[in-house]
Write a structure and sequence with these properties.
Elements (H helix, E strand, L loop, with lengths): L13 E3 L5 E3 L7 E6 L6 H12 L1 H6 L2 E7 L3 H11 L5 E3 L4 H5 L3 E6 L2 E6 L2 E5 L5 E5 L7 H6 L1
Parallel strand pairs: 3-4, 4-5
Antiparallel strand pairs: 1-2, 3-8, 6-7, 8-9
């Protein structure tokens, strides 16, 4: 599980989004960023989480936040997820897990009695200077926006 804490500098990252555009942490300098990691596009929990963020997207923008999702899915799968659920924010296709590992969200998980390695559902709120303001490890998929916006 992540060792990053409130007050740490967010790891500098660079990855491709669903359309093949390069996205870097420095692109968000001067803005607040909600960086959410999720296990797999179009699965029930991830869909609930992404749609909850979508439904509250105007509130994020009004408070000066940008939203960016990350999983190890392919760009094609991320694009389909965006189109199917009309998601207004970009999704990184972190297939080589560089961003996932930089934020320490890859590790052992248990599901239905099975143990395996995967992406932990964790959200980082990063301030205008690239510092971590909040780390949410117990994400409530149906009410995630209220966890972030308080």
């Amino acid at each position: 599980m992540t060792t990053l804490k409130i007050g740490n500098a967010a790891p500098n990252f660079e990855a491709l989004d669903q359309q093949g555009n390069t996205v870097k942490l420095s692109d968000y300098k001067g803005k607040k960023l909600v960086l959410f990691f999720y296990p797999k596009a179009s699965t029930p929990g991830c869909t609930m989480e992404a749609c909850n963020l979508r439904d509250n997207y105007h509130s994020f923008l009004a408070k000066g936040y940008e939203v960016l999702g990350v999983s190890a899915d392919s760009a094609k799968r991320q694009q389909s997820f965006i189109e199917k659920y009309k998601l207004p924010f970009p999704l990184l296709a972190d297939e080589d897990k560089k961003v996932i590992n930089a934020f320490g969200v890859w590790g052992p998980k248990k599901f239905m009695g099975r143990e395996f390695d995967g992406i932990h559902r964790v959200t980082f709120v990063i301030d205008e200077n690239g510092m971590i303001k909040e780390v949410i490890t117990k994400v409530k998929t149906k009410e995630h926006a209220s966890q972030i916006l308080g």
